[in-house]
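Moderator note: this is an archived Q&A kept for reference. The question asked for a predicted structure of one protein chain; the sequence and the answer are reproduced below.
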Amino acid sequence: MTKSDLEDRIVRYGDLIPCKTAFIDAHTPGSDQKENFTIIGGGVSESPDQHVHIDIPHGFNIGAAGQPPKCRNSLHNHRTAEVFFVLKGRWRFFWGRWGDAGEVILEEGDIFNIPTNIFRGFENIGTDYGMIMAILGGDDAGGGVIWAPQVIEDAADHGLVLGENGKLYDSKKGEKLPEGVGPMPLLSEEELAKVDEPTAMQVIGGYVRRYNDLVAIADKAPAKVIGENGVIRDKPGFEVDLITRKSATETRHSHDKPSVLMPVKGHWRVEWDGGSATLAPGDTMSVPENLAHSAVPSMTGEAALYHVVATDDPAGATWRGN
């Protein structure tokens, strides 16, 4: 496979196309400056303006959120796994019906495998524009986003209505719900009572891992971060590894499913029969199934890379293993 054959499977950080109208809180003060990126897969955007960079099915979706300081993403829920790692900045993640059940602060490289069936939100608490990279379980990412009722109500006050068809309508542009399409119904009190509200100790202890701790493991051998035998024991339909300079190898390998390389630190040279490419933090590369390849740092200094590959496990609720 030649280098040109893979050019369409590499998305450079500088080429990412943002969408500022992706979700229902796009006009809500405090959330109206966020940018959403769909890198691989259809994602969960509610807007036709969302650009999809790579639409090849992988068994999971890759996306990103970019936000200036003090900008937040409103409380929502997913039916499948949602995993974030911090690429740039300092972020506060919070969860619960009203966002007050618990919170955690994440720094660059930290990873958070957010449990399903909880309302979660996040905000950039750094001093510069920040970016978090996301992995969503399943090719259809669970069928969309489930919003906390107050988010839908606040959005309506600022001109955005979410239809029961999962699409947004902006009254500021003269749009209205099509005939026969009603507004997305609010969750009932009975439905809300079934949504989990885990404590900070339960979430942080089970689903958050710090970059420096993972590096200490990955310097010995590639670290299984998320997986049945991972540091975070889960089976969300994909596995995540961390590879560092010390555990990288020039020995080529392949997978029977497409895999994704996402550098978090340093520059990485990816080689395969017929070509090579260099990736930087923020770049995303989709490697075809059964393509033998290797990835090693191409420059001196700190180097770490997250690797994602689908498994045969269903992309449903996260597995709360012991």
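Archived answer notes: The CA atoms of residues 24 and 155 lie 6 Å apart.
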